[in-house]
Design a protein that fits this description.
TIM Barrel, three-stranded antiparallel β-sheet, 2 domains, about 20% strand, alpha/beta, about 30% helix, eight-stranded parallel beta barrel
Length: about 425
């Protein structure tokens, strides 16, 4: 049986049919009311078949209908477990700290989390995801969203004014109900859509990142910051996922321009910046060394992100890069992506890399976000999928996934690090 899921809100079409007699709705929400809009899907549908999600290019018409009653019921149900906002987080030297008493008594905080590619890798199930995180000793969810184009595809523009209330707000609200932080990760690359089979290799496509595109990106981040400036459950703004194939000074300039614009409306939230080489740790110094101490002066609320995967660099080399940078400039570093690239390498290679990275994080008290949640059920001992030849996409091989490879490695580490 197939179930269809609209990328904009993650409600399975079958559920909508049962509730409303119509399908493929997208919500425009104001307070406690909602109206379905007339539209046509421009993004792929995500299809559940035998318990697995994949893309389906079917387009469904949207119908215009008042669905306030359904939203009232959903809102009332979701508010039964309302919790208080978490303490604000801030940067102090090389640490992220939190305060139970506004800006006084600071306590070290190590973000431990997972990537949530909502309605892309896993269907939207916000409270279930938050509960999964709590059960696995995680304290943060890294929400992948887009400010300009869905999956960096110029044919799929994002309406940021609709995206924030319908896509980001539900996740933040679920995090508040469950006592977690959210990183808002603009999953862009300063390029057009990348070829995932050649990720972290040379790919030069920048047509929609001219000056007009850059200004649009900055303006949309200002809208994000304006909306969430008073929201302590938002850990921070990750401005761009993985810049690549650009000179370090160009990437640095783009980030600096965006940070300055954000600070016009929000002086408090942490801003997270990657590096010029797919956010690899080895590019921290060449991207940020010249300005690491003064990048966000006088607010100084910047965290420097890095992403590494098997054969990007070995864990002990990553350790050298991040500790040298952190200690030289007394600034915080955070791994906002790492994991097992099972489609490229065998299980032994993936496990050895992930174990080494987790050892690094635990030894150095560096926070991490494993990429990415595929299901909310653990199954780390499923037969490891065979690596695909370069350029070959999903084959006829039926894949059964762990929640996020490998839950038997990262989950106990989270429990130990989260107890500090």
């Amino acid at each position: 049986m197939k179930r269809y899921c609209d990328r904009s809100n993650g409600i399975p079409r079958r559920s909508l049919l049962a509730a409303m007699g119509i399908g493929g709705l997208t919500w425009a929400i104001s307070g406690r009311s909602a109206v379905a809009k007339i539209a046509t899907l421009r993004t792929p549908l995500y299809v559940m078949h035998d318990g697995r999600w994949s893309t389906d290019n079917t387009e469904l018409p949207y119908l215009d209908a008042d669905v306030s009653g359904v939203m009232e019921s959903e809102t009332a149900s979701s508010q039964k477990n309302v919790s208080q906002a978490l303490p604000w987080l801030s940067v102090k030297g090389h640490m992220i700290v939190r305060s139970s008493d506004d800006r006084e008594a600071k306590h070290p905080f190590i973000p431990l989390g997972i990537g949530y590619a909502r309605n892309v890798i896993i269907r939207a199930q916000d409270d279930e995801v938050m509960r999964f995180c709590k059960e696995h000793s995680l304290n943060t969810v890294r929400l992948a969203f887009y400010t300009r184009h869905f999956n960096n595809d110029v044919a799929k523009p994002i309406d940021i004014d609709a995206e924030l209330p319908t896509f980001c707000d539900p996740v933040i609200d679920a995090a508040k109900r469950n006592g977690l932080y959210v990183i808002l990760d603009d999953h862009e690359y300063f390029s057009e859509r990348i070829d995932e089979s050649k990720a972290r290799q040379a790919q030069k496509q920048y047509s929609h990142w001219d000056e007009v595109g850059v200004q649009e990106w900055i303006a949309r981040w200002v809208k994000v910051a304006t909306r969430y400036k008073d929201e302590p459950n938002v850990l921070g703004y990750e401005l761009c996922n993985e810049p690549h194939d650009l000179p370090p000074e160009t990437v640095r300039d783009l980030y600096i321009r965006c940070i300055k614009a954000i600070r016009e409306v929000d002086q408090r939230h942490i801003v997270i910046v990657g590096t010029a080489d797919w956010s690899h740790s080895r590019a921290l110094e060449k991207t940020w060394g010249a300005v690491a101490r003064t990048l966000d002066a006088p607010f100084n609320q910047v965290v420097f992100a890095f992403h590494d995967y098997p054969h990007s660099d070995e864990p002990w080399l990553v350790q050298e890069h991040v500790t040298a940078f952190r200690d030289k400039y007394d600034v915080p570093v955070l791994c906002t992506e790492f994991g097992a690239t099972w489609w490229q390498y065998d299980e032994t290679t993936c496990r050895k890399f992930e174990a080494g990275m987790l050892a690094l994080f635990a030894k150095e008290d560096i926070g991490w976000m494993v990429w990415a949640l595929k299901t909310i059920e653990d199954d780390p001992r499923n037969p490891h999928p065979s690596p695909r030849p370069p350029g070959v996409q999903d084959s006829a091989q039926k894949l059964h996934f762990d929640s996020c490879a490998y839950s038997d490695l990262w989950s106990p580490v989270a429990r130990i690090m989260g107890s500090k």
